[in-house]
Amino acid sequence: MEFNPHNNVIKLCIQGMAAEESGETEEAITKFLQAWKESTDDFEKFTAAYYVARSQKDVRDKLKWFETALEAGLKIDDVTVKSAFPALYSNIAKCFEELNDLENAKKNYELANSFSAKPSDDGPFYHGTRADLQIGDLLTAGGTSNYKTELVMNHIYFAAIANGAGLAAALAKGDGPERVYIVEPTGDFENDPNVTDKKFPGNPTRSYRSEAPLKIVGELTDWVRQTPEQIKSWQEKLANSKGEIIN
After folding, report:
1. What is the model's pTM?
2. By the 8 A CB rule, do 73 and 91 touch?
3. Could you tell me the domains of the chain?
4. Which of 40, 72, 88, 134 is within CB 3.0–4.6 Å of 45 for a Cys-Cys bond?
5. 17: how many CB neighbours lie within 10 A of its CB?
6. What are phi and psi for residue 129, nearest 5 degrees?
7. Which residue, among 196, 193, 210, has the nearest Cα to 155 in the 3D structure?
8. pLDDT tens digits, 199-225
């Protein structure tokens, strides 16, 4: 399953998040509920219910919608959804805690902790850059961030979606052509905490990071390339971002 920002339910959720950021709470709730009403499959229901849950003020309503999101998510055998389960179970546990139902709170905290921190994604994996590299080369941590030049990165980043790596290549520093390499992790890796459970539940962009090197095993030549206008828009968003990079 590949995350599709053009899906109408996803677009409604994005509009709801924009309304939230502008302080238009009622408009946000309206968008999230509309997304729920227009959901036709389990992934759409999982996503919309998550946002409806987040926007509820009453803890019982919040619990009901988080459980609805979980029910839909459990029907989907996909790594992008499974990565959301720890946070979902934790949110459900917090609701039970607020309701003084400590037995169910404990049960759901245990379920949240039962998921391995190591992703189950089998790839293939990609790394986007402007560097001219060769098959067999190793990509290692320790480079400067593409988004904050003063930050030396403790991890090397990659994705299981080629177009996501292509976007990283478009935004990378340097004057060389955009390159997307096929890579293999040489050690353990984890969900990228800078995107996981941030705007969307779980890790829909299938973005990862590792302290161990990535080995280049091939190069991709076909992916959806960003237009100059799109690149400029992304650069402006990043320049105006106030979020801290989790390094």
Report:
1. 0.74
2. no
3. 8-113 (1.25.40.10), 125-240 (3.20.170.40)
4. 72
5. 17
6. -160, 175
7. 210
8. 778 888 889 999 999 999 999 998 888
